[in-house]
Amino acid sequence: MLEIHLHLDQVFPMKYLAFSPVGAVASLLALAMLAVVSGCGQGSGESPPAASLKSPGDQAGDQRRSDAESTVPAGRSKSRQQPARPAPRPEKPPLVRFETTLGSFTVELDPEHAPQTVYSFLRNYVQRDFYDGMVVHHVTPDAYFVAGGFDETLTEKPGRAPIRNEAHNGLKNVRGAVAMLRDPADAHSATSVFLINVGNNAGLDHVNADSHENYGYCVFGKVVEGMDVVDRIVQQPTEKRDGFESIPTPLVVIKKAHQTR
Predict the structure, then answer these.
(1) Reported pTM
(2) Is 129 helix (H, G, I), strand (E, B) or coil?
(3) Fewer Cβ close by (within 10 Å): the C or N end of the chain?
(4) 63-117 pLDDT, tens per residue?
(5) Using CA atoms, how far apart are residues 232 and 229, in angstroms rounded to an integer?
(6) How far apart are CA 176 and CA 166, in angstroms?
(7) CA atoms within 13 A on the CB side of 164
(8) Domain extents for the chain?
(9) Which among 117, 231, 108 has a CA at the least distance from the CA of 169?
(10) Alpha carbon distance 199, 180 (integer Å)
(11) Which CATH superfamily is domain 95-259 in?
């Protein structure tokens, strides 16, 4: 480092340093100049960069914080990040309540295994009040009952377009299971008519797709409340009447069918 040595008598001759007004002023000026020159001789005079005052670890931490802040999307606070939203919970299966002249029962539908069937059942029929005033028009004792095709005058009420048969979904026609009825000669002909099993009816299950007969009857729900009412319906006396082989007497009427969930 360059050192500069100055002597007062080299800057100002001694004759100007006498204790006189002029000499006093000259002495002060000489001392001030000496201080300035001495300071310049100690280094560059610039303050060191702030980063050089920190340890390597401190500097690395600053870099990590800088990198993290650069990833914050524009418009969001860096200090208050939005927490991740939890995944939505799956909805509960829909429920349909049937109020009949013999009591009420509730069916839980299964849109996971029979999505098209459940959609049609709700959208085309339940939500349109289609089943209100319909009757149970067939009973096979200890097996099932059938409803959803005829009103109290035993006049057929046409359904909407047929749907694809989803009987291959793995669900079985066991006690309490609800299935769509269709033409035995056409596997994909179901519309509004349904059956409720009161026994285990393996003969209605899907076997294969080789024939309409083997395709089976699609289960799309189950009775979860009021199975005693279902049993009461199939225990009613039946008769042959107006082309019906086994219709309850007196008629069992569905007064109201409505979705409760």
Answers:
(1) 0.66
(2) coil
(3) N
(4) 444 444 444 344 344 445 444 555 455 589 999 999 999 999 999 999 999 999 9
(5) 5
(6) 18
(7) 7
(8) 7-45, 95-259
(9) 117
(10) 16
(11) Cyclophilin-like (2.40.100.10)
